[in-house]
Design brief:
By secondary structure, the protein is an alpha+beta fold. It folds into 2 domains: about 200 residues, Neurotransmitter-gated ion-channel ligand-binding domain (Acetylcholine Binding Protein, Chain: A, Distorted Sandwich), CATH 2.70.170; about 170 residues, no CATH class. The chain has 11 helices and 10 strands. Strands 3-5-6-2-1-8 form a 6-stranded mixed β-sheet, with no helix packed on it. The longest helix has about 60 residues. It is rod-shaped and about 180 Å long. About 10% of the residues have low confidence. GO terms for molecular function: extracellular ligand-gated monoatomic ion channel activity; transmembrane signaling receptor activity. InterPro entries: Neur_chan_lig-bd (IPR006202), Neur_chan_lig-bd_sf (IPR036734), Neur_channel (IPR006201), Neuro-gated_channel_TM_sf (IPR036719), Neuro_actylchol_rec (IPR038050), Neurotrans-gated_channel_TM (IPR006029), Neurotransmitter_ion_chnl_CS (IPR018000). Belongs to the ligand-gated ion channel (TC 1.A.9) family.
Amino acid sequence: MEGTFLSNMFWMILCFILIYTAVSGRRQTPEERLHSHLFGDQHHDLTAFPLEKGSLDLNFRLKLFGADIETDTETLSVDVNFIQSWANKRLSWNPMDFGNITDINIDPEAAWVPNLYVHGNLEEDKEYNGLLSTLLTKINLRHDGVQTWLAPSTLLLKCAIIVSHFPFDTQHCHLQFGSFAFDSSKLNINVKPLDLDLYEDSPEWELLESGHAKEYVTYPGSKTPYTDALYVLKIRRKALAPLKELVFPNLALITLTMLVFVIPTDAGERIGYLFTTFLAIAFFMTDTIDTLPRNSLNAPFCMVFMGVSTLSLSLLAVCLCIGISCYYANTNLVELPDKCKTFLRKSGKFLGVNLKREFDGWRHMLNEIRNFEEENFIGSSSSGSLHKEVKKFALASHTEHPTERAKTSSEQTPVQTRKDNSQHKCSLSEEEIDGVDPLFENPEDLRSVHERLEILLSTFEEQDDNSWREMEWFLFSQAVDKICFVIFTSCFVLSLVFAGIHIYEVY
């Protein structure tokens, strides 16, 4: 019994020894041995600064994949890959001792990394907070202690927007990186050129050129300057988008505004049409303002152009109101001023307006009768010749009624040049005159007819004069319309010329 127990104990101890020997005798891989060699010594803090004295050289480069600008928030969004390399002799080894391993990948927390900060960072991630040391990509460590850290990231940075040339603007945005923990006596940043091999333009912006520089910055309370890596991006807005979304619609609205001169004045739609286009332009101005920075100190080019257009429309509305008031002027109360008549006479040939008045035949006949009365009838008893003159006028007025002529005169736009005055004289023969109503043979009846005819003809004459006054106001309103059209069109064309010159200089 006792021998059996001892035998079992022997075999149990033997199995334990064999198992322990097998486990403890398993060989580590070369990389495991290398990690144990580098990071197994707990007596050294590998996250400490690698040098006891002197300055550490840090090679810093950016690989840029894309860039985009938000104008309203003045932010720059870039997709980059940070490429940093430095030497840490504490983490070197002989490849022959570790299976010819020349490089390995280590975690950023396992060793010292440059404590760089992104200036102007707007990222809301509190864990990141603009610190490149918080990026979690692996670091490549070579056997000679050189570490290379490639860390892709998307940055949201502050970029001051200059909107003077908006929407054909070019912006200069700065990307600045530096350390607040190590000054230039400990950390020297060697800035390398920007890598653009994989860069792609955004739909709205294109990269024109880039620059890089190393800056020395002295902060308050520090005697030794700090080195910063600075990159400058010159980015220009592509012209196609603002042309389609802003320029062409605005030009179309201004062009449609010019059609207000085609609408007849008596249609009553001129002012309504003008204010409709005015509201459309105001809508575009509001939409444009929403895309601009809130603290912009300069007036954008497009806003200046649209502001001038709005001012022109306001002045045009005033001119149209003047023209409409002239068109509907009450000629019984107001007569066209002499200065306006003089202006129309002098500029009529340039404006296509003829203010020269040509009297109708019945007005010439009426003047002949009155002249004859002054010469023969007043203070004289002879009435035979007067009979004939009155009969001539009666036949002339029967041929061309004054009311019909006044109506025709008021409807003509513009006034046409009449025939020579000599063509309006009556050419009736004596036999035709003698065949007129016998009422004219009696002198007393002749006086009565003459008085009544004088009253009637005075009324016709007043109506004809009133029609001409209406025609004068109408011609003046036409002149105002044409002058406004010329001025507005000239301003519009000049604005386009200056805008074209401005765009050409920018691009």
